[in-house]
Amino acid sequence: MKKIAVIGAGTMGNGIAHVFAQNGFQVHLIDISQASLDKGLATITKNLDRMMAKEVIDQAKKEATLSNISTFTNLKDGVSQAELVVEAATENLDIKLNIFKDLDEVCSADTILATNTSSISITQIAAATQRPEQVIGMHFMNPVPIMKLVEIIRGYSTSDEVTQTIMQLSEELGKTPTEVNDYPGFVANRILMPMINEAIETLYNGVAGVQEIDTVMKLGMAHPMGPLQLADFIGLDVCLSILNVMYNGFKNPKYAPCPLLVNMVVAGKLGVKSGEGFYDYSESRKAEQVSSQFK
């Protein structure tokens, strides 16, 4: 397997494309917007430059990685001859169902269809196709070039052969694949999101402030990043979407999103990507931080 298509040039999609391309795969990166594709390539280039600065790769490896990536705005052209398609679009069920329905129609009969969903049922996504045995979850962690874990999720009909192929492929990427069963949130987010939601509840109830909550978890629980900062990094809209999937899937109130999280998403305070969440990531704030270093 050497020809890969990745759908979505956002944070996860460009990271997945980066990792495949760096490991010698021919990657077709697909998005409906050329501007999104250009932004995705710029992010990949910046990340490769960071790796060069740390002497993880050299200039030749950077150039080879970038040369392995081609961009497409047309789905049919982009998935042509792909042996594996990895969907990394927005965490929205309807969007994913439409994508997989289209993929089933335009991809070769033996193409494996994978989704990077972090919470949505693989079985439900597979049901949009005529090849459910060839549909699988391939949940990479963010940032993809750095994080080692890939959750491999079998749908109800996913074949043993496809599962083994994707497990081996993940190892070829230098990742550690871990097979889990198809339940809302899988393992990573079933455990992580209630923790983040509880941290937001703690803030909402006035127990402590943002920095205090994160400091307790970083210094007291040895977490590299506090749960509120991590929520900003993931995207508060993504956190809300995952919690809603689990709440609707399990019908258990412990997964109900905190009202503060709901209100912040409605207000457009989504974290790093919007410039503000529990922390301020605006350019003015960055300028203040830089100037304070020289006082």
- The ordered H/E elements are EHEHHEHEHEHEEHEHHHHHH
Radius of gyration: 20 Å
CATH architecture assignment name of the largest domain: 3-Layer(aba) Sandwich
Poorly predicted residue ranges: 289-295
Counting DSSP E segments of at least 2 residues, the number of strands comes to 8
User: Helix segment count?
Assistant: 13
CATH homologous group name of the largest domain: NAD(P)-binding Rossmann-like Domain
- By CATH reckoning, the class of the largest domain would read Alpha Beta
Gross morphology: globular
- Fraction of helical residues: 40-55%
- Strand content is 5-15%
| Overall residue-averaged pLDDT value | 95
Structure characterization notes:
- The protein is α/β, with parallel strands linked by helices.
- The protein has 13 helices and eight strands.
- Helix 1 crosses helix 2 (34-53), helix 8 (188-204) crosses helix 10 and helix 8 packs across helix 11.
- 50% of the residues lie in helices and 13% in strands.
- The longest helix has 20 residues, at 34-53.
List keywords for this structure.
295 residues, alpha/beta, Rossmann fold, N-(1-d-carboxylethyl)-l-norvaline Dehydrogenase, domain 2, 2 domains, 8-stranded mixed beta sheet, 8 strands, 50% helix, disordered C terminus
